[in-house]
């Protein structure tokens, strides 16, 4: 996932960018509100999330958030030392999707990034009003939990469906192993890693698309949209 980091402190930005890169993010750093807005011109389709610090040198972060929201629906997470409830409410009313207070735990920040990114579906995934995900020849019906390829129904177990649906909501985005285990199995990573690998292999086999789910070494898995 491409991520726009709006942070005027170069040391903070460098440290956070390094952490995000280790978790599969492609980070673009903007040092001011104007740089951030320029990065989002003419459109922000290339960014999955904007991390917006409110203490910017040229414009108030709230003002920047409002401008971002007018030109794109890309999820925005405000990152600030302002912890009072009124500030949080103001940010959310301006269109921010989440609000993280400094100092924060890196694991929590990563979880929040993934959470807001899943709420917006990429343009290369078509979602109907009936809750249907379409990725090339693959059709995933969320309400009925039915999957078909080229019109032929594929029988999946409950966990196989949950795993596929999770990856399909953000095609191209790398999901960390720990995150998948937490959301699909509702448990911790320890002792469950082999189970995840088995389910991925089973999905590749049942869908007859070995390249559909890509293993990102040392990080996790992502769904490859070019495979259909």
TrEMBL record:
<dbReference type="Pfam" id="PF00486">
    <property type="entry name" value="Trans_reg_C"/>
</dbReference>
<dbReference type="InterPro" id="IPR001867">
    <property type="entry name" value="OmpR/PhoB-type_DNA-bd"/>
</dbReference>
<feature type="modified residue" description="4-aspartylphosphate">
    <location>
        <position position="53"/>
    </location>
</feature>
<feature type="DNA-binding region" description="OmpR/PhoB-type">
    <location>
        <begin position="130"/>
        <end position="225"/>
    </location>
</feature>
<feature type="domain" description="OmpR/PhoB-type">
    <location>
        <begin position="130"/>
        <end position="225"/>
    </location>
</feature>
<dbReference type="InterPro" id="IPR039420">
    <property type="entry name" value="WalR-like"/>
</dbReference>
<protein>
    <recommendedName>
        <fullName>Sensory transduction protein RegX3</fullName>
    </recommendedName>
</protein>
<dbReference type="InterPro" id="IPR036388">
    <property type="entry name" value="WH-like_DNA-bd_sf"/>
</dbReference>
<keyword id="KW-0805">Transcription regulation</keyword>
<dbReference type="InterPro" id="IPR001789">
    <property type="entry name" value="Sig_transdc_resp-reg_receiver"/>
</dbReference>
<keyword id="KW-0238">DNA-binding</keyword>
<keyword id="KW-0804">Transcription</keyword>
<dbReference type="Pfam" id="PF00072">
    <property type="entry name" value="Response_reg"/>
</dbReference>
<dbReference type="InterPro" id="IPR011006">
    <property type="entry name" value="CheY-like_superfamily"/>
</dbReference>
<feature type="domain" description="Response regulatory">
    <location>
        <begin position="2"/>
        <end position="117"/>
    </location>
</feature>
<keyword id="KW-0597">Phosphoprotein</keyword>
């Amino acid at each position: 996932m491409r991520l726009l980091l709006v942070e005027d402190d170069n040391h903070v930005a460098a440290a956070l960018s390094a952490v995000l890169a280790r978790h599969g993010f492609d980070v673009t750093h903007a040092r001011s509100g104007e740089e951030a807005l320029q990065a989002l011109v003419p459109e922000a389709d290339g960014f999955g999330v904007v991390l917006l610090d409110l203490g910017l040198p040229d414009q108030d972060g709230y003002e920047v958030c409002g401008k971002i929201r007018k030109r794109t629906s890309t999820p925005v997470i405000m990152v600030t030392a302002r912890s009072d409830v009124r500030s949080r409410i103001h940010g959310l009313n301006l269109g921010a999707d989440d609000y993280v207070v400094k100092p924060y735990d890196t694991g929590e920040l990563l979880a929040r990034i993934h959470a807001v990114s899943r709420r917006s579906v990429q343009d290369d995934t078509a979602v109907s009003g009936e809750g249907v995900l379409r990725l090339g020849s693959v059709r995933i019906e969320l309400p009925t939990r039915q999957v078909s390829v080229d019109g032929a129904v594929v029988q999946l177990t409950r966990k196989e469906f949950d795993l596929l649906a999770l990856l399909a909501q953000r095609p191209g985005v790398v999901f960390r192993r720990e995150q998948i285990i937490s959301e699909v199995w509702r448990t911790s990573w320890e002792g469950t890693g082999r189970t995840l690998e088995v389910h991925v292999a089973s999905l590749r086999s049942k869908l007859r698309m070995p390249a559909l789910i890509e293993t990102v070494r040392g990080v996790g898995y992502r769904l490859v949209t070019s495979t259909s």
